[in-house]
C-alpha cells in the first residue's frame, strides 16, 4: 500500500454525498474495468468486490469465493450495494465510489492499466502487445470534513484462491490496512496495484498511481477523439453512448467481439453482427476491420456460416454483416474478397430451402432446426427468423453483386429472393394468426420473427403482418410490454423482459415513422441500465435483477448505441433521414444536438441542431462520397426550420403528445404498481 498522504491526486474526483444518487435500475449492478482487446477484464460485483484471476464467473457465490474486497472506516465496514458505482467523466472505464464513516469521506477509484514493466506501455494500452496480464488499481482519497480530528481507516483483503498458489500476490499475502489521524479538512491518500495474474518476485505496491491514472484518462479520451461524436441534450444518453463504445472494446478479444466479460466470453455471429455495426457507426474503423475478420472463420465447407451449432440465422447475419461493412466503408477491394463467401452462403440457403418436396406444406423454406432465441431446442420446428435472415442475406448478396458489376448473378439472386418471399407468403396464409409467429408451428418465444424491418427491411413497412406482430408483442403476448419492454420467457423461469431484443420492435417503429413510440421505448431501454451505463441481457423485472448476472452485456450496449444513432441518422435505401424519431424536448430552445464525423452509407457527415425561440437552426455538412438520392429532415410542426437547407426536404410531423425524457420515465417507473 503506497502512502500519498497530503498529496492530492487530481483525478480522484470527489462525489458529493449530499447530491441525489444516480439512478441505478439493477439490484445486481455489475461493472467491468479492463483494457482494449485483452482476453480478460476484471468484473466488479454489485457489492464492489473485484473478481481478479481465479474469480472468473458470473455468480455472486463465485465472487465470495475468490475476490478482492474493500473495507473502510473505523470499524472497517465492507463496501456494499449502498455505494453506487459511477464512471469518471460519466463514461471512462474508471470506477468511482464514495463512502462515508462519520466525518470522513472515502473517495475510491478503480481502473486498469498495462503492467509498469511493459517496454512500451502506450502500445500495451491499445493491444495486449506484451502479454495478457494487466494491473488493477485501487486508489483512495480520505478527507475529514468535520470540525474535530478523527481517525480514518481503509483495508484491502483477498478472499479465496488467487489464480496460482505457486506465486501468491505479494501485496495481499495478508490484508493491507492503512490508518490516519486526520485533522479537520485534512486528507490522505493510499493506493494498491494488483496484477490479474501474479508476477513472480514482483511487487507493484510501490508504484505511483498518479501517472497511470492520467495515462488511462488520456488513452481513452484520445481514442474517442478520433471516433464519431454524438451529443444530445440528455447527459445520460450521451454518456451511455460513449460507455457502449468502451464496452465493445474491453469485451473484444484480440479483435474478436465477444458477448461479455467473464460470461458469454466467446464470439457469436448473432451478437457480433450488431456489435461490429456499432463499431462502424462509432467511426472506430480499425477495431471494426479486425472485428469483421472472425466472421469468415466461421464458414463451413458447405458455405453456411455458423457459430451456434445447427442454427441457421447466422448464415444470413454474416452476409448482412459483410455487406454492411462495405456499405459504410466503401472498401471495394475488401468487398471483392468477401463476395465469394457471401455468394457461397447464399448458395447454401438456395439449396437448403429446396430440400423439402415441392408439394410439402413448407416447401421453399428452410428445414427444421434448433433455435436458441426462440427457445425451441428439439430441432423439430421451422423458425421464421431463420427464413427472414437468409432472405435478407440473399438481398444483401444481390446488392453486392450489383455493386461489383456481376449483373447476371445479381438478377439470379433477386429472382431467388422473390421466390423465397413467395414461399413465406404461402406458408403464412395457412396460419390462422394475423402476425408472423416465432415458428411456422406457432411455438416458441418471439425473437428473429421481430427482425422484419431492421436492420434492413425484408417486407414493406406497411405490411399488415408486420403491424400485427408489433401489436401482438406490445399489447398481447404474455400481457404485452412491461416497463416499455418486450416480455421474453420460455415458461420455465419467472416473468422476464428482454431490452435488447425489444429494440428490434422499436426499430420497426422507427422505420414506420412512429416517432413518439420510439422515443418512449428508447428511454425505457436507457432506464434498464446501471449508473455506469451497463446494459443487461434479460431482466427479472419484478426484482430488478439481470438474469445470470449478465451485466455488462455487450449486445445490449451495442443495440442501445444503434438505436440512438438511427433516431438521429437513418439510412433507408438510397435516402438519408435526419432526426427521424427523437424526443421533441431535444429541440427545445437553448438545446443542441451535435454530430461530428458520423459515418453513413453515403460517407461521413456533420450535423448541428440548435433550438431557438422560433424553431430550430440546422447546420448540415452532408455526406459527399456517394450523395443520397434524398435527404429528409423530420421536425415537429411546432419546431419549424428557421432557414431552408439546400437539397434537404423537411417533413413535418405532429408534435408528441407528452414530454419524454429520462426523469419522466424514472417517475413513470416509480409510479408502477408493485
Structure report:
With 674 residues, the protein is of the alpha+beta class. Among the domains are: 2-224; 298-432. Helices cover 32% and strands 18% of the residues. The chain contains 15 helices and 23 strands. It has helices spanning 60-65, 121-126, 209-225, 235-251, 269-281, 285-296, 313-329, 332-352, 384-403, 407-429, 464-476, 499-511, 515-527, 554-568, 662-670; strands spanning 2-3, 31-33, 42-44, 50-51, 67-72, 77-78, 86-87, 95-101, 104-113, 135-144, 150-159, 176-182, 187-195, 229-231, 539-540, 545-546, 569-572, 575-578, 592-598, 605-611, 616-621, 630-636, 649-653. The strands form six sheets. Strands 1-13-10-9-8-7 form a six-stranded antiparallel beta sheet, covered by helices on one side. The longest helix has 23 residues, at 407-429. The two termini are 46 Å apart.
| Global structural class | alpha+beta
Number of helices: 15
What general outline do the C-alpha atoms trace? globular
Main β-sheet: number of strands, strand sense, barrel status?
Answer: 6 strands, antiparallel
Q: Give the terminus-to-terminus CA distance.
A: 46 Å
Uncertain spans, ≥5 residues at pLDDT below 50? 1-18, 54-58, 163-168
Determine Rg (CA atoms, Å): 26 Å
Mean pLDDT: 93
How do the strands line up in the largest sheet?
Answer: 1-13-10-9-8-7
Number of strand elements: 23
* Strand percent estimate: 15-25%
What is the helix fraction of residues, given as a range? 25-40%
List the helices and strands and how they pair.
Elements: E1 2-3, E2 31-33, E3 42-44, E4 50-51, H1 60-65, E5 67-72, E6 77-78, E7 86-87, E8 95-101, E9 104-113, H2 121-126, E10 135-144, E11 150-159, E12 176-182, E13 187-195, H3 209-225, E14 229-231, H4 235-251, H5 269-281, H6 285-296, H7 313-329, H8 332-352, H9 384-403, H10 407-429, H11 464-476, H12 499-511, H13 515-527, E15 539-540, E16 545-546, H14 554-568, E17 569-572, E18 575-578, E19 592-598, E20 605-611, E21 616-621, E22 630-636, E23 649-653, H15 662-670
Parallel strand pairs: 18-22, 22-23
Antiparallel strand pairs: 1-13, 2-3, 3-4, 5-6, 5-11, 7-8, 8-9, 9-10, 10-13, 11-12, 14-19, 15-16, 17-18, 19-20, 20-21
Helix pairs in contact: 4-14, 5-6, 5-7, 5-14, 6-7, 7-8, 7-9, 8-9, 9-10, 12-13, 12-14, 13-14
Amino acid at each position: 500500500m503506497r502512502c500519498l498522504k497530503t498529496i492530492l491526486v487530481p483525478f480522484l474526483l470527489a462525489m458529493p454525498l449530499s447530491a441525489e444518487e444516480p439512478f441505478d435500475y439493477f439490484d445486481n449492478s455489475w461493472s467491468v474495468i479492463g483494457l482494449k482487446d485483452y482476453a480478460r477484464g476484471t468484473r466488479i460485483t454489485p457489492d464492489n468486490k473485484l473478481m481478479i484471476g481465479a474469480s472468473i464467473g458470473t455468480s455472486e457465490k463465485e465472487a465470495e469465493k475468490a475476490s478482492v474486497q474493500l473495507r473502510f472506516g473505523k470499524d472497517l465496514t465492507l463496501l456494499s450495494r449502498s455505494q453506487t458505482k459511477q464512471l469518471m467523466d460519466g463514461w471512462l472505464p474508471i470506477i468511482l465510489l464514495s463512502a462515508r464513516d462519520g466525518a470522513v469521506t472515502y473517495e475510491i477509484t478503480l481502473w486498469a492499466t498495462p503492467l509498469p514493466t511493459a517496454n512500451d506501455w502506450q502500445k500495451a494500452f491499445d493491444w495486449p502487445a506484451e502479454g495478457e496480464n494487466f494491473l488493477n488499481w485501487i486508489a483512495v482519497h480520505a478527507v475529514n470534513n468535520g470540525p474535530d480530528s478523527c481517525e480514518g481507516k481503509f483495508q484491502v483483503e483477498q478472499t479465496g484462491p488467487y489464480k496460482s498458489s505457486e506465486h501468491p500476490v505479494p501485496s495481499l499475502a495478508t490484508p493491507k490496512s492503512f490508518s490516519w489521524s486526520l485533522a479537520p479538512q485534512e486528507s490522505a491518500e493510499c493506493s494498491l496495484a494488483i496484477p490479474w495474474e501474479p508476477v513472480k518476485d514482483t511487487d507493484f505496491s510501490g508504484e505511483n498511481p498518479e501517472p497511470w491514472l492520467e495515462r488511462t484518462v488520456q488513452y481513452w479520451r484520445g481514442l474517442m477523439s478520433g471516433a464519431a461524436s454524438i451529443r444530445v441534450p440528455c447527459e445520460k444518453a450521451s454518456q451511455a453512448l460513449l460507455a457502449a463504445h468502451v464496452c465493445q472494446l474491453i469485451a473484444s478479444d484480440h479483435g474478436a467481439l465477444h458477448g461479455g466479460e467473464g460470461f458469454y466470453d466467446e464470439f457469436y455471429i448473432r451478437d457480433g453482427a450488431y456489435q461490429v455495426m456499432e463499431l462502424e457507426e462509432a467511426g472506430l474503423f480499425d477495431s471494426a476491420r479486425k472485428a469483421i475478420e472472425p466472421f469468415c472463420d466461421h464458414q463451413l465447407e458447405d458455405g453456411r456460416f455458423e457459430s451456434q451449432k445447427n442454427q441457421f440465422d447466422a448464415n444470413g447475419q454474416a452476409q448482412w454483416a459483410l455487406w454492411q461493412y462495405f456499405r459504410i466503408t466503401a472498401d471495394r477491394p475488401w468487398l471483392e474478397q468477401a463476395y465469394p463467401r457471401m455468394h457461397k452462403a447464399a448458395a447454401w440457403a438456395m439449396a437448403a430451402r429446396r430440400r423439402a418436396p415441392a408439394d410439402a406444406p413448407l416447401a421453399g423454406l428452410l428445414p427444421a432446426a434448433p433455435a436458441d432465441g426462440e427457445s425451441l431446442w428439439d430441432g423439430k420446428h421451422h423458425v421464421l427468423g431463420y427464413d427472414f435472415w437468409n432472405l435478407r442475406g440473399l438481398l444483401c448478396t444481390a446488392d453486392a453483386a450489383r455493386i461489383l458489376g456481376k449483373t447476371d448473378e445479381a438478377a439470379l439472386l433477386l429472382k431467388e429472393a422473390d421466390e423465397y418471399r413467395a414461399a413465406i407468403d404461402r406458408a403464412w396464409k395457412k396460419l390462422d394468426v394475423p402476425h408472423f409467429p416465432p415458428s411456422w408451428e406457432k411455438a416458441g418465444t418471439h425473437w428473429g420473427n421481430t427482425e422484419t424491418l431492421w436492420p434492413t427491411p425484408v417486407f414493406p413497412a406497411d405490411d399488415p403482418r408486420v403491424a400485427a406482430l408489433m401489436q401482438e408483442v406490445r399489447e398481447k403476448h404474455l400481457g404485452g410490454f412491461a416497463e416499455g419492454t418486450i416480455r421474453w420467457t420460455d415458461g420455465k423461469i419467472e416473468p422476464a423482459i428482454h431490452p435488447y431484443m425489444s429494440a428490434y420492435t422499436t426499430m420497426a417503429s422507427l422505420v414506420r415513422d412512429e416517432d413518439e413510440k420510439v422515443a418512449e421505448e428508447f428511454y425505457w431501454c436507457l432506464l434498464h441500465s446501471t449508473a455506469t451505463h451497463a446494459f443487461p441481457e434479460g431482466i427479472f423485472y419484478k426484482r430488478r435483477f439481470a438474469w445470470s448476472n449478465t451485466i455488462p452485456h455487450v449486445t445490449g450496449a451495442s443495440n442501445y448505441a444503434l438505436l440512438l444513432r438511427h433516431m438521429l441518422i437513418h439510412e433507408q435505401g438510397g435516402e438519408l433521414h435526419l432526426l427521424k424519431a427523437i424526443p421533441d424536448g431535444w429541440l427545445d430552445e437553448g438545446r443542441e444536438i451535435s454530430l461530428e464525423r458520423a459515418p453513413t452509407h453515403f460517407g461521413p457527415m456533420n450535423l448541428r441542431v440548435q433550438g431557438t425561440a422560433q424553431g430550430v437552426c440546422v447546420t448540415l455538412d452532408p455526406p459527399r462520397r456517394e450523395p443520397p438520392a434524398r435527404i429528409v429532415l423530420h421536425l415537429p410542426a411546432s419546431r419549424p426550420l428557421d432557414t431552408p437547407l439546400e437539397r434537404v426536404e423537411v417533413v413535418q410531423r405532429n408534435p408528441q403528445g407528452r414530454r419524454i425524457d429520462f426523469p419522466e420515465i424514472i417517475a413513470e417507473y416509480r409510479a408502477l404498481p408493485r
